[in-house]
Amino acid sequence: MDTKQKNMPQDPSRVYLRVIDASANRACEALRVIEDFVRFVQNDPFLTETLKTLRHRLVQNVLMFSLPERLAYRETLADVGTRISTQTEFHRASLESVLDANFSRLQEALRSLEEFSKLTQPESAHEFEQIRYASYTVQRAVFFTFLAETPRRKTLRKLRKIEFLSEFEISSSTPFPRGVLCVLPKISAAETGSQAETVSPFARSSEFPEDCLCVVQTLEWIEEPECGGILLNSADPEDIHEIRNRVGLEKLIGVCIQSADDARKFLLTGIDFLAVVPKVPEYEKHSSQCEAEKIQAFTTLPVFQADDPHFFI
Question: Taking the model in full, what pTM does it have?
Fold first, then answer.
């Protein structure tokens, strides 16, 4: 009997299930590799949970295609692609290259699933599309959480304290504190109309320790070379993309929050750190500290307890 005839599926119109089966396997395998990285290499509970949820969504959607049918059309031994490889396929230069390869593999497989699902399962095609979009968001979060190792981010991870400086403190000759994330006050010429206020807050101090980062609370002074980034008093998750486009990769973005629920809203937006501030109207240092510890337990992003009684959202 002719080999090609022997291997031909009984229903040629259903041969696309072979593509569904192979792409589903690729996508699930790639998600598992990424999940293993954030779980075992970086110990990040939030991203581990996010990827596990995404993988569950993928598996549930794949189940819309009968497993017995998929297996009937699976033929690994006759797959011409198994005998084709590239020189770089079996080499990874770094953990970053492992992640890049598997995010690409995941997103390509999802696109293939999306397109071939349109033949018989348009609802599944839409879900594959949404999972693909979600993977782009997770990829950005993984990058800013682990891989964007700029000098400022390396310094940020060494800091354990945040301080909100007053105008008096930055106008005096006192050097900036060491080992601290310093938040400069809101100094805006537009608010006072005073020509003197147009002077950058960074010009008022001549000493910037290497183990110190200074961030501002408005975008007015973000371009200053000494400015490490911005801390947003109040922001929506949707605002972060526009702000990142404005400040670029080198500058840090932090967000003030009050609870673990607030934190979860921002952890996929590409921020660099969180500041847990007291709740209005009363200032409760113990409550703020407990909330900061709770948040730090499920993310590897730097989390600071901002217990300044004069700084509220």
Answer: 0.85
